[in-house]
Amino acid sequence: MATLPPSKSLSGIQSGTSPWSIEQSIELYGVHDWGAGYFDVSANGDAVVQVQTSKGEVQVSLPDIIQGMKERGLDMPSILRIENVLDDRIKALNEAFRRAITRYEYKNHYRGVFPIKVNQQCHVIEEIADFGARYHHGFEAGSKAELIIALSKIKDDDSLIICNGYKDAEFVELGLYAKEMGLKCVFVLETSSELPIILECSQRLGIEPLLGVRIRPSVIVDGHWNEDSGDRSIFGLSSPALVNVVEQLKQADMLHCLQLLHCHLGSQIPNIRNIRNGVLEACRFYCGLIEEGAPMGLLDLGGGLAVDYEGARSNSHHSMNYQLDEYCANIIETICECLDPLDIPHPVIVSESGRATVAYSSLLLFNVLDVRDHRPSPLPTHLPDSSHDLLHNLWQVNTDINGDNFQECYNDALYYRDEVRELFRRGQASLSDRALADNITLAVLEKVALQLTQCDKSYPELDNLPELLADIYYGNFSLFQSLPDMWAIDQLLPVMPIHRLNEAPTRQAVIADITCDCDGKIDHFATSQGIKRTTLLHEMREGEEYYLGVFLVGAYQETLGDLHNLFGDTNVVSVHIDDKGHYDFVREFHGDSIADVLSYVEYDPKVMTEEFRKRAENAVKKGAITAAKRKQMMRAFKASLDGYTYFEKEEH
């Protein structure tokens, strides 16, 4: 998200004196920076999703899709999935590797696998299996449940199933049966203790396994997960353990089963140099295993391909300083430079890009329920002479503020306000005094903010001023349920209004959810000047919905949510856009009812209904309510059990 150019300063926006264009909204919210070409703004100010079809690029308005959802009884909040975007991400990844393979005359091919843990939702997996079959795109499974998903959904026998994670005998047996059926199911050894289990199952069933080894590279990567890279990585074999595995396979006469080297550098790697260094080290291990007599043939470079959530094109945690073609070219070139001098055949390249595959295809849509406006109330025309001296001092600060003294006035106003608050705590100032002091201080702060927009000098001590003045927009969603990474690991996700983008947004704001929890808020936003604690939103209009979208939520967010405050899964809609710009509601899933989420935490809705009935009947016996009133109460109780866990507006 870029800040406004000087000609469109914040003062101009807030006063309504400056004209506004959709280009400024695009710049303000960074749509072209993080959107990767999938999102834009239409001439009438609607956010649109744009996709390539056989007849060219088409756009569909997000507010139009919301209207279609409402007509079908699907209320906010909702997850919107766009099949075309998911398909295009699979195509983009495979085609980028194809271009790099052609450019460097690489003598093998690429096979992508999608890590199911990144998004386990059935429709997402089915779409990847269906569209990915043309590229032999497979799956990575880290548990028995995920392996079952992969075995039931995979469409193509040439696709890979990479089995990572700890594997017990039941897991191994299932994978061996898959291999016997003709599927390319590879067991990756995470620890040396897994090998005896695999060898025992293989001997007992008479099925030879396809084996891989996961090494622990020494490369330390940049990004949020860098503490788990290098020697401190919790998974992967050390060099001594790797040599020990090779010796055990030799003794069992099964070294020929070792065909894959797995090297996972980390997740969301923002710096391309880390990737190149990691591939170089992986190649050295690969060469070493061939020297030991293993046939090899597959080089799995794990995940790490980043998503530019910031749109900054940098090596900051939430960004990336490379593009997809550069990523693929660096991998291919590094492998060639390492293996060609040794006359080692080029391996099949495998990557487990999950985040970059699914992030763009899903977004969270929600409506704003209310706003806590932090603008000062109208001040009185004058202060009574009997007012406390501190209030008179505050009043004078508000009167005297100008372009030369606004920093001094800022400091004075906070000092006098805090002194009044201290008097209030000691019972020496009234509630009215406290309220007036707070209100005058808000008036001073607004004037200071206006002065700041009209000067070029930087005032670091005033950096928190937008946060102090920010309105709170209450969104109809649960951060913990739908955007858990925002809360847990400070994940940055693009947030913006999806309509009215041809109007100037005039209010500095943070966004709160409806969980009544102090952590349930979005207060970090990407700008061209770094991460800011507020964003600009539009004034609410009486009787009119205001919709916001959180973009790039397809990776992890849909599968990590919990039941904080017993808010359940949201409604989910999947749409497919045709070459005429029409869209079909391919699938729709109604979110959890209250009865659903209560059953998840071991309550029985039928038992609860009976318990409530007994309480109501007892009230009838006592004469507290009538039998007719009891019937009305029971109807309301049952309706609530069947209702959506989120805020529902009454239909009129």
Describe what is shown at a glance.
Helices cover 40% and strands 17% of the residues.
Description:
It is a single chain. The protein contains 23 helices and 23 strands. With about 650 residues, it is an alpha/beta fold. Helices cover about 40% and strands about 15% of the residues. Among the domains are: about 60 residues, no CATH class; about 250 residues, TIM Barrel; about 80 residues, Methane Monooxygenase Hydroxylase, Chain G, domain 1, CATH 1.20.58; about 40 residues, no CATH class. The strands form four sheets. Strands 4, 13, 14, 15, 16, 17, 20, 21, 22 and 23 form a ten-stranded mixed β-sheet that branches. Strands 5-6-7-8-9-10-11-12 form an eight-stranded parallel beta barrel, surrounded by five helices. The N terminus is likely disordered. α7 packs parallel to α8 and α15 runs antiparallel to α16.
